Amino acid sequence: MKMWSGRFRQPLDPRFERWQRSFDFDRRLLSYELTASAAHARALKNAGVLSAEELIGILEGLQQIGETAAASKGLVEDDEAEDVHHFVEKQLVARIGDVAYKLHSGRSRNEQIATDMRLYVRAAIDGLRGDLAEVCGTFIDRAEQAGGAAMPAYTHLQRAEPVLVGHWLLAYVEMFLRDADRLADCRKRVNLCPVGSGAVAGATLPLDRTLMADELDFASPTANSIDATSDRDFVLEFVNTLSLLALHLSRWAEEMIIFSTEEFGFVQLPEAYSTGSSAMPQKKNPDLLELVRAKAGRVIGNATTLMITLKGLPLAYNKDLQETQEPLFDATDTALGLLPLVAGFMKTVEFNHQSMNEAAQAGFMNAWAAATYLVNRGVPSRLAHEQIGKAVKLCLKKSCELQDLTLDELRSLNPVFDESFGDCLKPASVLAIHDVVGGTAPARVKKAIAAAREEIDALRGEVHAHA
Ligand code: ARG
Predict the structure, then answer these.
(1) Ligand 1 in contact with 449 (CB < 6 A)?
(2) pTM for this predicted structure
(3) Mean pLDDT, all residues of the chain
């Protein structure tokens, strides 16, 4: 039976009928629909709408639907179900007869879909935060393994200063920890229960909303039925957060692609995550990284779709909101698909520490350290900058590095130079002077690794607590 045919004199155009259905995609909400329906059924019993016996029948029916669906994917093929809500009603009627129709008492699909989507997003957040902890774990392991290995850090994609490889890897850990934190923050606003909001004005029966929210493990019922049935901010906020995560991954992928080129030679692509060329026998292509880079476009596209779908929508529920489901699912699938692959890639990728170290020693990356040498001897910073700049100019003419200049040449620029200048230019000294919180001095990086591990443990603990 249809959910709404009473007032209609004509049947729907079959093409429209098929086209407006959401069951093809919202069937993935089935388990949430069943759980939320069970909570609603208990509230109906407490409100005196269902007898104890009817409640048991409905709960058993809902459970059977869940079990059968889990065992056979075929169950959730249904050419007549308009959406997941209609599907459950049909299935329940097939199992327990007309008493199943009592389950819809006092509720509306508008509150149901809002609830199912919140339950879905909440579970996705918990899964993604767990995956992010694993990704961070692999980055931190690699940072630790890199030990004292250095590499050039770039600004404007030009060599700037040497840093520890570990310091570079920890930069990504920071981004991912912010993503995990944003997800946790988003979760607070997701974790409110729309059940009992009705179509727009609130349920038409005295249902205990707090009890239903508790049963579904929500922090509390939503405060306003108009907002609760029309709000998809939580979807947009979640997908925006995923956009930022995908954007971080795309920056990482781009760097890894560059670093894996023959020209850089910092990274050996793992064969398990690369592909060959059908034409050029020598090729090993960074396909995983390229696809990771491209997926950001896809997730950001989903966020844009959501934003434009919601813009200008009058309150409260409109069928437009059905169109928020697919971008949500696609963005979630994309993010959930990416993270384990990134972790696997990072576990197996080989860093060529030798070529990274070599690159870190050439190209005047000790120039700022050289200027600092003068500053520490009382030379005003702007003048020190100018004098080291001149020293670099001299080196360029002679095709050498700063450490190759003679003391006489240096003293012609400033008499304050002495023998100790050579030491301050060595890679270890250059790294060591960046001895501030957040800097690349080895002792600082060691502490940063330990601090990052603590954050990951805390994150894992939080994820575990929600499981
Ligand atoms: N399939 C619908 C959706 O995703 C469920 C809500 C339908 N509500 C309605 N009043 N037609 O939005």
Answers:
(1) no
(2) 0.95
(3) 95
